[in-house]
Amino acid sequence: MVAPATLGSTHVSIVWDKPVDYREVTGYVVLLDGHQILKTTSKQTHATVVDLQPNTQYTFEVRSLFPQGRIVAATKKIGVKTRPAAQLIDVTQAPYAADPTGKRLSTAALQRAITDCPKGGTVLIPKGTIVLSGAIDLKSDMVFQVDGTLQGSTDPSDYVYAQGDRSKSSQHVNADGLILTRYEGWEMNCFRSLINAGYLTPENRMNMVCHDIRICGTGTIIGGGNQLGDGMKERYHDKQKWPQYVSDGIGGRRVRGRLLSFIQCQNVDIWNVTVKNPPCWTIHMIYCDTVTTHGVNIQSRGIDNGDGWDPDSSRNMMIFDTTFDTGDDCIAIKSGKNPEGNQINILAKNIRIFDLKMIGGHVLAIGSEESGGVDGVSLRDCVVSDTDYGVELKAHASRGGYIRNFKMQDCRVDRFMVHSVDYNADGQAAPTLPVFQTIQISNTQITGNGHSLEFVGFYEPQTGACSDISDVLLDSVTLPNNGNANDPQICVKYARKITFKNVHREDGTAPVIDADMRTIRVLRINGKQSG
Questions:
Q1: Which of 68, 123, 247, 431 could form an SS bridge with 254, CB 3.0 to 4.6 Å?
Q2: What is the pLDDT of residue 531?
């Protein structure tokens, strides 16, 4: 299939599923109009094809390679027609004349070029240039191409709407020039991000207000980092002067903008750029539908709350061929926080994560803000290394909501944790405990020592209420050889219908399982049932 939103005038990305007997596959070949143009490994199920002609029909086909030279079609033939060529606007040229040295703020010039960009056109920051800017707003049907450097200002004043511009904006803008957005599960007023698309409409959050946007290029988008983030927090740090910006008991902590922010957007392609040094989260998608991220390098090591890629109550998300080196969660899938998230009740759904590498940071997380529900997350052919928690499905017991239909296949991860957490708890409790169910892990290597697999459900001691983690299947999962063979590597508590099939250490021995059988209903290990 064509990866959603990736078809351009000279390029397209295609992705494919593995065949049923994929473990025998030695690689894949991609054909363009009957001619082989690319050969991939057995772990790569994507291809981005460039240097195509505009407004031209092409046919792609993917074939699986097997031992002894056997070749089998992996996909049906895929017909595409590239988009027509469109106007290119160089922001450093007249009449825009953005400073190409990065010494002078060029926000107005850049925004004017975006405003003037015709449908399907491209606004370009050319190679070898540095453009210094505050917050800019993209619009529908455009490409923003960064081949040079977009450098974000470190002055918080460059990320608010000026007094004269507030009435002109479609955004909900408050008296301080901050916009209505969402952060850590609640809608609130925050500074603008460096790159913004769309806006929040509380009367209809499912209405897509911005569409068909591509951010791409061979260059780098650099935010203002901690200097900017600290400046944003400091402006509203005084809790008595600015009570409206107190959250989690801290003045101003949650007002920071992000690096790239998409709100109620549809058909967005983020391709090939390096994004780094955000003031807070790096790429944040709120109430969006169909966003594809690929070929991107995300860097936020050392950034306070420096998440990498955060789909928030968004659906039909896809990310592949991307590298993370973050200061917090590499990926964090969210759907709101109690009680507001339960009331808005917009889930995160159909999120595909494959062919990527996460180095450092905390975790690939689902939650802890999952009050609106998370349904249908798949993880395949990913490496998660040198992280604190590996892959983590998490929620506070007060959160409510659910996580269901999670699949992980053909991965190598530090740990896999499904459990309750005790932080980010400043909200009225939901009427029910979270529900985590239908979790499948197959053909995966766990590399971390200690409790590297954890399945611990939710228990409320004051009421005695319990929500089991349920319907879990681990098939062909390998754990490391512990230094002490008697130390538990798997923890199970408040759980039911847990099945371990062919789960073993690297040396073939069975791992030790710390199972609280008083709180477990049905635990199957290699065909033997307990509980």
A1: 247
A2: 66
